Amino acid sequence: MRVLNFGSINIDYVYSVDEFVKPGETKAARSLSVFAGGKGLNQSLAMAKAGLKVVHAGKIGKEGEFLVKTLKDGGVDTRLIEISDVPTGHAIIQVDDKGRNCILLFGGANQDIGEAYIDRVLVGFGHGEMLILQNEISSMSSIIAKAKTKGMTIVFNPSPYSSLVPNYPLELVDIFIMNEIEASGLSGEHDPDKAAGLLMRNFPQALIVITLGEAGSMCAHKGEILRQKAYRVKVVDTTAAGDTFSGYFIAGLAEGMDIQKALDLAARAASICITRKGAADSVPWRKELEVGDIRI
Ligand code: RIB
């Protein structure tokens, strides 16, 4: 099966710090590393490294061409990516001593997605094919509506959550993949179990996956909740763990796994991702997911 990921492409500037900088504080970072990133790019790589045929659509500025090479090297079809007059999107990421991150985004070319480009991208896709979306590009509502009209299956990761999300045509989404913060934003409920219950009621058509960090993940569908543990590893950098989880979960479903197996595959992949620095660079290949490779 072939999937289309219409998603962000970023340059990640990653600063290593002991603790995150506080309001009013000036702080020296210990180091700076530059990585390929963007939730879209990371998820395309995760799906491709898992073995799925992935076409990535999105925009970069002229200085972002190395990001296309990263996608190609990971096995992603990049023919639909266009160069914009707007600079490439970027992220300023602090990673602290506990491996936690905080991210400041500049949308750049990711916010230069308009109707003509959407039509050019969707022309080659149709019934039964999957569209993967995160929330880092412009014209989200239009992409969802146009893809659904063509009969595509819509997978939406509402990350990062924004006040725009509830205005998207979410009744057209077939699979939601989100973390606790996004689930709380979308449901108004902080407790993940209650959020899952509410989301199931509000979106009865959809499969709802909620990731819970070290508490694992859950999938709510048709009144039932499945749970998955997180594998215990030494945390170096949690950046792109959610993207790795999403990509591998989708790949698992696309190859016909049942939901529980796909959740387990995704949890294994995410556990390897957090033992490594960076975003795209930390996404593992499928062969690395053998049980023996994960120090549980
Ligand atoms: O999920 C991690 C990603 O979020 C980073 O690669 C950064 O670019 C932001 O999009």
Overview of the molecule:
The structure is a single chain. The protein starts with a strand and ends in a 23-residue tail after the last helix. α1 (39-50) packs across α7 (241-254), α5 (180-187) crosses α6 and α7 (241-254) runs antiparallel to α8. It has a single domain (2-10, 38-89, 108-291), classed as UDP-N-acetylmuramoyl-L-alanine:D-glutamate ligase, CATH 3.40.1190.20. The mean pLDDT is 96. The chain has helices spanning 39-50, 65-73, 115-122, 140-149, 180-187, 192-202, 241-254, 259-273; strands spanning 2-6, 10-16, 31-37, 53-57, 59-60, 82-83, 89-95, 101-106, 130-133, 153-156, 175-179, 207-211, 217-221, 224-228. The longest helix has 15 residues, at 259-273. The protein is 29% helix and 23% strand. The strands form three sheets. An eight-stranded mixed β-sheet has the order 4-1-9-10-11-12-13-14, with helices on both faces. It has a four-stranded mixed β-sheet with strand order 3-2-7-8. The chain is of the alpha/beta class. The protein is built from eight helices and 14 strands. The structure holds alpha-D-ribofuranose (RIB). Alpha-D-ribofuranose binds next to β2, α1 and α7.
Tell me the CATH superfamily. Ribokinase
Radius of gyration: 18 Å
CATH topology: UDP-N-acetylmuramoyl-L-alanine:D-glutamate ligase
Rounded mean pLDDT score: 96
Order of helices and strands: EEEHEEHEEEHEHEEHHEEEHH
Widest β-sheet, arrangement of strands: 4-1-9-10-11-12-13-14
Please report the total strand number as a whole number.
Answer: 14
Report the top-level CATH class.
Alpha Beta
List the ions, cofactors and other small molecules found in this model.
alpha-D-ribofuranose
- What would CATH call the architecture? 3-Layer(aba) Sandwich
Helix content: 25-40%
